[in-house]
Specification:
- With 281 residues, the chain is of the alpha/beta class.
- It has three domains: 3-92 and 178-186, Periplasmic binding protein-like II (D-Maltodextrin-Binding Protein, domain 2), CATH 3.40.190.10; 95-170, D-Maltodextrin-Binding Protein, domain 2; 195-274, Alpha-Beta Plaits.
- Helices cover 30% and strands 33% of the residues.
- It has nine helices and 15 strands.
- Strands 1, 2, 3, 4, 5, 11, 12, 13, 14 and 15 form a ten-stranded mixed sheet that branches.
- β3 and β4 form a beta hairpin.
- α8 (212-220) packs antiparallel against α9.
- The longest helix is centred in the N-terminal third of the chain and has 17 residues, at 14-30.
- The two termini are 29 Å apart.
- The protein binds prephenic acid.
- Prephenic acid binds at residues 8, 13-15, 60, 63, 69, 92, 112, 114-115, 137-138, 180.
């Protein structure tokens, strides 16, 4: 049976490109067929996998310019059974698309908030007076153009071709090497891979030096931390959950020891997975 992959739609999103790249990887490496299941939001793509309506969701987690996609981290924390099976990084090249060729007539720019954030310097320099309006995805933004002749949208060259919208400018992202990392989310627990993602909450997070001990556990064992991020617990102001990504495998004794020790210092500890990553050119 084909593997079903939920992702943010509709057709032409960067998330669809990431899900297709993972599907092609499955075909090549595991001789599995795949089908794409576009969803109206990242939250609904994650719900689809949480409710077992699909096998996996492929969702963005971090962009090199704009940083973390909060809904992905928050959902991983809330739905404790969901696991990360693989990471996948794709280059992101944004274009400015419109049926109106004269920038002087443009009053509105539609796009996904992440894409607007990744082009904020370009927008400030070239369209300083326009109103920026959030759309559910970069391709949903293109649909809004039909109703508004004074609008443009930020999306990909691929989406421009699919929806037949002229490209006014290409490569408008604020850094040329812009890329977004996606996660493949499902229920399987991998026991090896190059990276481990986890998160923990502390009984009292708002006291001096409270993070020193948990971080020292990794430093003492020369375990490299690639990422640390805090998100609010949503219970009260100033209380945080700490997300960590580290290099290593759950098979390694020093990692097992570190995680056992970490447990003693945390109120809740979730291990989201041990996984390898794919990089798409
Ligand atoms: O709107 C899209 O096309 C998406 O796939 C979403 C998304 C994101 O949420 O980060 C994916 C990649 C890019 O960073 C910009 C937008």
């Amino acid at each position: 049976m084909a593997i079903s992959l939920a992702h943010l739609g509709p057709v032409g999103t960067y998330s669809e490109s990431a899900a297709s790249a993972y599907g092609e990887w499955l075909e090549t490496n595991q001789q599995q067929k795949f089908i794409l299941c576009p969803q109206p939001s990242i939250a609904l793509a994650l719900s689809a996998v949480a409710q077992k309506k699909v096998n996996y969701a492929v969702v963005p987690v971090e962009n090199s310019i704009e940083g973390t996609v909060n809904i992905t981290l928050d959902t991983l924390w809330q739905k404790k059974d969901l696991k990360i099976l693989r990471g996948l990084t794709i280059p992101i090249v944004h274009s400015l698309l419109s049926y109106n060729e004269d920038l002087a007539n443009i009053k509105t720019v539609y796009s996904h908030p992440q894409a607007l954030g990744q082009c904020q310097e370009w927008l400030a320099n070239n369209l300083p007076q326009v109103q920026l309006i959030a759309a559910n995805s970069t391709t949903e933004a293109l649909k809004l153009l039909k109703e508004d002749p004074t609008a443009c949208a930020i999306s990909s060259a691929r989406a421009a071709e699919i929806y037949h919208v002229p490209i006014l400018y290409s490569g408008i992202n604020d850094r040329p090497d812009n890329c977004t990392r996606f996660l493949v989310i499902g229920f399987e627990t991998n026991k090896f891979g190059s990276h481990i993602s986890l998160a923990f909450g502390l009984e009292k997070s708002n006291v001096p030096g409270v993070l020193v001990k948990p971080l020292q556990i990794f430093a003492e064992r020369e375990i490299n931390l690639c990422k640390i991020e805090s998100r609010p617990t949503k219970r009260s102001l100033g209380e945080y959950i700490f997300f960590i990504e580290l290099e290593g495998s759950l098979q390694e004794p020093k990692i097992q020891e570190a995680l056992a020790e970490l447990k003693q210092y945390t109120e809740v500890l979730s291990i989201f997975g041990n996984y390898d990553s794919i990089s798409v050119e």
